[in-house]
Amino acid sequence: MGRLAGKCALITGGTTGIGLETARQFLREGARVMITGNNQVNMETAQRELGSDVSAVISDAADANAQKQVAAKVREQFGTLDVLFVNAGMVDMRPIEQFDEEAFDRSFAINLKGPYFLIQSLLPVFANPASIIMNASVNAHIGMPNTSVYAATKAALASLVRTLSGELIGRGIRVNAVSPGPVATPLYGKLGFSEAELKNVAASIQGQVPAKRFGTPSEIASAVVFFASDESAFTVGSELLIDGGMSNI
């Protein structure tokens, strides 16, 4: 019997990378799964791979009002929700002098505002007990150049884990976080670099990892499964850094 048998789970940003791999592992562990995403092509591809039993919802992770619609879909499909993996996010790497207000607001909307109002909208739907897992980042803990806004959004998300863990545990809702280091996902291909620039950026980042490699989506997803399962029933408000030692140098 799977570790998530009988549980209903929502994964935001579940069409590629860590989110898609987490959906695969959740399914193997016996969960019923719903994913969100904002790209129709990626959504269709993911649903073909995951199977027709997986519910898929097109949603803008930055739109606070859209989170109410996602919560309504969860209630309609599942009745109650046992696991939420807040995975949808964006990386915008650029020097401070190149940021404008629109880009700043977009990063905070996707990485912090959307998750905040999704959790708020899901409060009446969560089971007791339930588990929320946030996808934060090692960048909240290190001073990597050109990540000032991204790191700030993830630091805020990690702070939210600590405050909400205290606020929601009385309702039986545990809140924890995984904080990956660099992971080999399509996310890096969305940074707007040329292929040559992307290789240089990847090499530079990898050089900062004591393990001398990028992580894999499977390694992150396995940790999310642990937090989603009853094995972590006494784990509240924690943040697990999965970074190949990057935060230790």
Task: Explain briefly what this protein structure is.
This protein is an alpha/beta fold and 249 residues long. The protein has seven helices and seven strands, in the order E-H-E-H-E-H-E-H-E-H-E-H-H-E. The protein has helices at residues 17-28, 40-50, 64-78, 101-122, 148-168, 195-206, 217-228; strands at 8-11, 32-37, 55-58, 81-86, 126-135, 173-180, 239-242.
Q: Could you explain how this protein is built, in words?
A:
The chain is of the alpha/beta class and 249 residues long. The chain contains seven helices and seven strands. It has helices at residues 17-28, 40-50, 64-78, 101-122, 148-168, 195-206, 217-228, and strands spanning 8-11, 32-37, 55-58, 81-86, 126-135, 173-180, 239-242. It has a seven-stranded parallel beta sheet, with helices on both faces. Helix 1 (17-28) links the parallel strand 1 and strand 2. Helix 1 crosses helix 7 (217-228), helix 3 (64-78) packs parallel to helix 4 and helix 4 runs parallel beside helix 5. The longest helix is centred in the middle third of the chain and has 22 residues, at 101-122. The chain is globular. The termini are far apart.
